[in-house]
Sequence to fold (283 residues):
Amino acid sequence: MRRRAALALAAGFPAALSPGGTKAMTEHRVLDLPAGALEIGAEGRGPAIVLLPSLGRGAEDFDEVAPLLVAAGLRVLRPEPRGIGRSAPLRPGATLHDMAADVAAAIEAEGAAPAIVAGHAAGNWVARVLAHDRPELVRAVAMLAAVTGTEVDPDIRRSITASFDLALPDEERLGHLRRAYFAEGNDARAWLPGWHPAVSVAQRAASAATTDKAWLRAAERHPLLYVAAAEDAIAPPPSEEALREALGPRVTRAVVARAGHALVPEQPRAVAEALVAFARSLA
Fold:
C-alpha cells in the first residue's frame, strides 16, 4: 500500500507561488571549497530536495519544476555543476565521488540533511554516489529518465553527440534533439540553448574514472523513486522487477506520459507532482 500511495499525484498546488502565497525568490551563494568555488541556488522552506541536472547542462533546467516544489512546501537546492555559472571547473582526475562531495557540501552548508536527492538522466550518477558515500545526508533518491543498464541505439548515440555540437545549424540540431530527447509533438527548441560541451567532457571523464560499482544499488539502503518517461528513446521505461534487480528492493516507479528523455522541460508539472507525492510518502 505504501508503494501505491507514493504514486498518488499531488494536485492543485499553484504554478509559481510559494506556500506563503508570494513568489519564491532564489537565493544564490558561493561556497569556497578545496576543489574550487561552488554556486548554489536555494528557494522555499520545508524539507529539502536537491535537483541535479543532466550531462553538460545547468541548474536552469529545473526553472519550471522548482517553483512547483516550493509551492508544495519543499526547500529546493540547486548546486550549479562545475564549469557552469560561478562554479569552478572539475579538476583533472575528478571522479563521481568528487562530484558527490560537492553536493554533500551544499547540503551541509544549508543545514538541509537529510535531503531527497533527485538526478535527471546522468545526474542520477551523482545522486546515487552521494547516497552511498554519505548516507546520513540522504533521505531518499529520485532518478529521472535515468539509464539503468539498457543499450542505446547507435543512431540515438549519434544524435546525443550532435546535441553538444554548437557549430551545427539550429535546424540540424533540432532534428537530433527531437530524435534523442523529446516525445513526438513536444517542442525541442526548449533545449537548443543550455549545452556546455566542455562540462560534459569533464563529467564523462569523472564517470569513466569511477571504477567502483558499490554505489549502483542505491535502493538497498534508501527509498528510491524512478520517474520514467513513456517515450524515452534512450532509457525506455523499465519494469519494476527490472528496477529492483538493478537498484535494490526499495524502488517505486512512476511513468510520465508524453515525455522523452528530456522529461523535465517536456512535463515539468508531472515531474513535480511525482516528486511531491514521493516526498509526502516518506513522512
In short: The CA atoms of residues 38 and 102 lie 7 Å apart.
